[in-house]
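Recall from the previous lesson that a structure prediction takes nothing but the amino acid sequence as input. Here we apply that procedure to Methylenetetrahydrofolate reductase from Mariprofundus ferrinatatus. The sequence below is the only information supplied.
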Amino acid sequence: MKLSEILSSANKPLFSCEFFPPKTDKGEENLWNCLRELQAVNPAYVSVTYGAGGTTQDRTKGIVTRIKDETGLSPVAHLTCVGATKEQLGELLADYQAAGIQNILALRGDAPEGMDRFEAVAGGFSHATDLIAFLREQGDFSIACATYPEGHPESKGGVRDDIRYLKMKQDNGADCAITQYFFDNEAFFRFRDSCDAAGITMPIIPGIMPIGNFDQIVRFSSMCGATIPAWLHEQMSPISDNPDAVAGLGIELAVKQCAELLENGAPGLHIYTLNKSAASIAIHERIRGYL
Ligand code: FAD
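The prediction returns the following tokens.
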């Protein structure tokens, strides 16, 4: 089903999940087990990332196509501008259309390994805003985009810049935005209010990262610009070498965060599953009264 239809027909907040294309056969088997387990909570849509540097183009395409054909879930394919010309992107989109894939999460992407900043290839796009406009011309896709309640790490003008570009993404044809993960709900509420004031009317869906490995989250966060609040450090640091305790606390904190977001009008929750089902299922179980 198209994301735009899922969003417009929703009379309750949506619960969705994100996966990444694994690199090994074992990882692939694990992904399909995880997807099957998550079918039990009936996610409104499931998204599949596109590897840094465009390295997973075929795997992303293969997985979203199989999700559509075999599970009855509505897939969203992530797509970045990295390393691709307009013509190459056009060919990939034609393949998606032929396979019946209707939903794209349009991104700029990050610099490929070995490069310290993103650079568009000749004949390619520099920003997600351009990719979104291109997608609108290419076919009947429903388009999601990314946004950053605490600011994208490269934004010179901070969150204000990101809001300006988010409005441009909406004007160019995006149907909804999914946020980078964050742990401080107040940052999301402030961001949402500023988006409202800037005329952004599309749903802004919070991205939720259940913590399963605190050291890994600290590393991710330093790269993607998500803040780890002092209270989170205080609670996680003393138990960070006990995986079960971290996972248990990670679920408790995510449930509390999700409940507060939903009580304050969030249109949905997008769970970064990291291809593991247990935390997402446990969170869903505890917040399903809101969904
Ligand atoms: P953009 O919106 O283009 O923003 C990049 C920078 O340029 C920002 O600083 C912004 O303020 C600025 N900017 C934006 N538009 C303009 C403009 N028109 N003119 C001038 N400046 C502008 N990465 C992957 O490689 N694969 C994935 O599958 C993937 N999935 C993601 C899913 C979500 C929900 C999120 C939040 C991120 C994801 N990322 C993924 C990471 C993303 O690629 C990086 O954060 C990347 O650095 C920025 O992508 P973007 O689409 O937000 O870029």
